[in-house]
Each structure stands twice: as structure tokens, then as C-alpha cells.
Design brief:
This protein has eight helices and eight strands; from the N terminus they run E-E-E-H-E-E-E-E-E-H-H-H-H-H-H-H. The protein is of the alpha/beta class and 259 residues long. The strands form two sheets. A six-stranded mixed sheet has the order 1-3-2-6-4-5, with helices on one face. The chain has a two-stranded antiparallel sheet with strand order 7-8.
Length: 259
């Protein structure tokens, strides 16, 4: 029989329990992944009881309350609180999503909060986006042209502009990319759903003149074709976008280019 063993300091331990104050009207347990590289210890899951009668409706509201009133060492990213910046992306109740748009009432039982999967954890719920940003930069996400600049601007028809809907709204939260099993196994070679969605955004832009170069760069066994249409990326996107469809469209463009 094959035996598997986790690396040292990788087994998640049961952590501390912080009880709600006496007289709490709506106590709710939040189980938060904790990891501090300076402690040289296993990660743990601490439990914090929060009185929802004195807390906002979203998971991020509870995290802020925990950090402000219970344990200032809890570490996480956040910024806009409006589902725009993508900073507070994390795994909540087993789903990659944004803490600022995930309602507590939509979760049954204790609220389990973990960092995004597959990413290296810097501390607690904060992960390292270095590789993710490098892949996004590789797509060259800017308009590229070779013809002379027009006197005013490069015009675009209403129909061509409509093709960008469902693409430009991506906030690069990495929820889709870190939900993809193909990315888990080939994250160093496969670009992942977020980067490929952004790549398609420029491929389909009628003003961009580098379509051939972009497609040629993507025609690789790993960069594009590690996608097996599992659909996790589309199912988890907090903005309701469809990276899987964008990837399929890129594959079609690559084939049609050869015909």
C-alpha cells in the first residue's frame, strides 16, 4: 500500500478558541486559517465567536471586527469593500470568492475561512501573487498597433465594443485561477483562467493589431492547452464572468488561423 506523508510543519492543527462576550445575541463561529512563518510551527485554525447583532452582513465585516476587537494579529488583504479591487479574495466555506461580497447569512454553520488554494501563504490569509502577476504581464495586456496613429482616436463600432463585455470586468482576484486543478499541477507553465481571459480581451479587440503574434505565443502545449474545460473557473468567478468560454474561443482562433 502506498503511504503519503505531509511535509514537516504542514499539518493543520486545532488552534485557540475565542468565545463571544457574555450576553451575545447572535454568536457565530468563524474558523480562520492561521500561519506565521516566523513561528516555525504548523499552521492552525483558530475559532472566533462574533456577535452578528453588532457586525455587518459580509464576511469581511466579521474579519475586520475580529482584527479590531478580538485579535489584532489576524492578517488579510482588503481595500474597496465593494467587489471592485479583488484584494480580499480567499476561500470561504470551500469556495473561492471575495470576503466583501460574501454574505454571512448564506453560509450554514461555522464560517470556514482559508487562503486561496495552491498559492504560497505569506501569512494567515495573505498569499503570494508574484507568479500570478508575472503570467498576467506575459499576456502583454495593452493595445498594440503597427499602423500610424490616427488624428484623434482609434474608433470602434458599437458591435465590436460589445465583444469586450464579460472580459474587461475582470478584477484579477485570482479566484478562478486558484480553483483550477490544471493550474494546481502546472502553474509554472499553464497561464491559468485569469491570464487567458485577459489575453482573449485583447485578441478580440478590433483596434489591436498584434493578433497573430499573440496567438503564436499562446500556441504551446502548456500555456493554453492545459485547460480541460473543468468549469471551476466559471463557477467560482465572483463577477459572473466566463473564463472557460474565453479559453475555448482562443483555441478556436488558433485553429482557424491555420485553415
Amino acid at each position: 500500500m502506498v503511504e503519503f506523508a505531509l511535509p514537516k510543519n504542514s499539518r493543520v492543527q486545532q488552534g485557540k478558541v475565542h468565545k463571544a462576550k457574555p450576553g451575545a445575541k447572535q454568536p457565530r463561529a468563524f474558523r480562520i486559517y492561521r500561519y506565521d512563518p516566523d513561528e516555525q510551527a504548523n499552521p492552525r485554525v483558530d475559532t472566533y465567536e462574533v456577535d452578528l447583532a453588532e457586525c455587518g452582513p459580509m464576511v469581511l465585516d466579521a474579519l475586520i471586527k475580529i482584527k479590531s476587537e478580538i485579535d489584532s494579529t489576524v492578517t488579510f488583504r482588503r481595500s474597496c469593500r465593494e467587489g471592485i479591487c479583488g484584494s480580499c479574495s480567499m476561500s470561504i466555506d470551500g469556495e473561492n470568492t471575495l470576503a466583501c461580497t460574501k454574505a454571512i447569512e448564506d453560509i450554514k454553520g461555522p464560517v470556514a475561512i482559508y487562503p486561496l488554494p495552491h498559492m504560497e501563504v505569506i501569512r494567515d490569509l495573505v498569499v503570494d501573487f508574484t507568479g500570478f502577476w508575472a503570467q498576467y504581464e506575459w499576456t502583454q495586456p495593452w493595445l498594440q498597433t503597427y499602423t500610424a496613429d490616427p488624428e484623434k482616436e482609434r474608433v470602434q463600432s458599437i458591435a465590436d465594443r460589445a465583444k469586450l463585455d464579460g472580459l474587461y470586468e475582470c478584477i484579477l482576484c485570482a479566484c478562478c485561477t486558484t480553483s483550477c486543478p490544471s493550474y494546481w499541477w502546472n502553474g509554472d507553465k499553464y497561464l491559468g483562467p485569469a491570464a487567458l481571459l485577459q489575453s482573449y480581451r485583447w485578441l478580440i479587440d478590433s483596434r489591436d493589431e498584434a493578433t497573430g503574434d499573440r496567438l503564436e505565443a499562446l500556441e504551446d502545449p502548456y500555456k493554453l492547452y492545459r485547460c480541460h474545460t473543468i468549469m471551476n473557473c466559471t463557477n467560482t468567478c465572483p463577477k459572473g464572468l466566463n473564463p472557460a468560454k474565453a479559453i475555448a474561443e482562443i483555441k478556436k482562433m488558433v485553429v482557424e488561423r491555420k485553415l
